[in-house]
Amino acid sequence: MKQPHMNLSRALLPIASLLLITLGAGCAAPADEDVEQNEDALTTYDDLWSTLDGDDLDRWFSVRAALETGFDRICGDTICGGDYSNLATVRIACSSTSQARKLKDCAWVLGGSIEHVDTRTGKLTSEARVFTCKIPVKGTAKTMLAKLSAAGDDALHTPLPGTGKSFYDGLVDCFDGVVGSPLPPPSDKNFYAELGDWAWEQSSDIGAAWSETTRGLAAGFDEICGDSFCEGEYPDITALRFACSVNRNTKRVSRCTWTFAAAETSVGARGEITVSTATKRCVVEVGAQAGDLMSALSSDPLNATLPGRTTSIYDALIGCL
Q1: 3-state secondary structure of 24
Q2: Which residues make Cβ contacts (< 8 Å) with residue 123, sequence separation at least 6?
Q3: Contacts of 85 (CB under 8 A, 6+ apart)
Q4: ∠ Cα 192 111 167 (to 5°)
Q5: Is residue 1 part of a domain?
Q6: Domain assignment of residue 235, given as a range
Q7: Is residue 280 a contact partner of residue 289, using CB atoms and an 8 Å limit?
Q8: Pairwise CA distance, residues 56 & 51, whole Å
Q9: Is residue 170 one of the residues assigned to a domain?
Q10: What does the buried/exposed string (b/e) look like for 142-165 if buried means 16 or more CB atoms within 10 Å of the residue's CB?
Q11: I want to staple 101 with a disulfide (CB 3.0 to 4.6 A). Which of 69, 107, 141, 205 is the partner?
Q12: Is the residue at 56 inside a domain?
């Protein structure tokens, strides 16, 4: 008796299924590696402030302010005891993953300058630099903010979650071995001096008054920068030192300079923070007696009319910054 005919496609189904299972098992890559690679490829990063909102964003602003204040408080006895004695914060920035807010990178950008007056000729020179200090971070932004917020005024020295290092530790490592360019050899002539030094030589009251004036200049610049100079290529510009050369005999100030540090940060595809920096040296022509200059700048120093002129220090910055 003839055997019934079997459908060939139905007969091959079990074999095909077995082949698919076998091939699938043989071609599969290690699961952990694939997941990690896919996560890396899909993860996006951004500046920390843009990933936060509500209370977390407020805490980040407060923490940055506490870090800056803490640095200003201890700088003179620590890092600012080196060649760059006027270090000032330009920007503090961190990056994190956009969704989970996992920290990736942090950078603290500072500027500093060295001014020198040739005591023989009165020539005023300056060397300004911008330093990018990386701070080791791990974990989530929420965990870091909770730790630093709880530390209050001591946020600068507080060990960070996951690394055990503080922001201060990162700065110390950054400035280890930093020195300025060698100054020219001293002259045997002592005709000129830097105005700040000269003011303290006259009396403590005159020196303190001039120090207050230069602090007022920096404060005035900070107040107007966001609506003027800081709207350009560099959104963060920090005033460094305003210095003048004064003739010891005639007490005449011919010229002053004001140095600035500027920075802009961006976050790369892998979460690293890239910093673009610049320094500016603005010249302010004066041509007046030291006492007249100090008197003119004693109130609203940024916008006050310079003695014997129709312009202000602010006007000198317009063509410079």
Answers
A1: helix
A2: 117, 245
A3: 76, 112
A4: 135
A5: no
A6: 43-318
A7: no
A8: 10
A9: yes
A10: bbbbebbbebeeebbebebbebee
A11: 141
A12: yes
- In this structure, which amino acid lies at residue 177? G
Residue whose tokens read 């007046």: 288
Going edge to edge, which strands form the sheet with 236-247? Answer: 192-194, 236-247, 252-267, 273-289
Strand partners, 277: 263
Q: For the chain, what is the total number of helices (H) and then of strands (E)?
A: 10, 8
Distance from the first to the final alpha carbon of the chain: 104
130 closest CA partner among 93, 83, 171, 88: 88
In a domain, 250, yes or no: yes
Output the six-digit token pair for 109. 């950008």
| pTM reported for the whole predicted model | 0.85
Number of domains in the chain: 1
The tens place of each residue's pLDDT in the chain, 321 residues long, gives 333 343 434 333 343 443 333 334 443 434 434 433 444 667 999 999 999 999 999 999 999 999 999 999 999 999 999 999 999 999 999 999 999 999 999 999 999 999 999 999 999 999 999 999 999 999 999 999 999 999 999 999 999 999 999 999 999 999 999 999 998 888 889 999 999 999 999 999 999 999 999 999 999 999 999 999 999 899 999 999 999 999 999 999 999 999 999 999 999 999 999 999 999 999 999 999 999 999 999 999 999 999 999 999 999 999 899
> SS3 of 217, please?
helix
| Tokens coding 145 | 């903010």
Q: Which amino acid is at 109?
A: V
- Phi/psi of residue 231, nearest 5 degrees: -95, 5
d(CA 268, CA 270): 5
Tokens at residue 170, please?
A: 């990162």
Q: What is the token pair recorded at 295? A: 């008197």
